Amino acid sequence: MKEMISLSNGEWKLMKLLWGNETMTVGQMVDALAGDTDWNKNTVFTMLKRLEEKQAIAMVTTRRPQQYAAVITREEAAREETSSFLTRVYDGNLKMFVSALSGNCELSQEEINELRDMLNQAESRLSRSEER
Length: 132
Known about the structure:
The protein is mainly alpha-helical.
């Protein structure tokens, strides 16, 4: 079974850059984050090494200077982060999460309709799997 990848806030910043670009050098990442962070090349390099260890990114060895590319998709990372959050905070109880979410913010009619559509699709998938 594949191990879940948990990303820190800083790692999310780097991953978002890599998801938006095919490859990037350390210098390009430092420049891109300059308005948001005060990270230098050593900081970015250290975080990239952690992301490599987590198998979230890979160094592109055919290019100089060294460039990095995302190995996991944004959707994979978001799915794992959501699952981890739901388990940590709500003991895996989606109903408690939705209740907290809907009670703490105003939902537009469009958002309510989208949520209803998602629930209808989930119910349809459940019905199909029970028929098998």
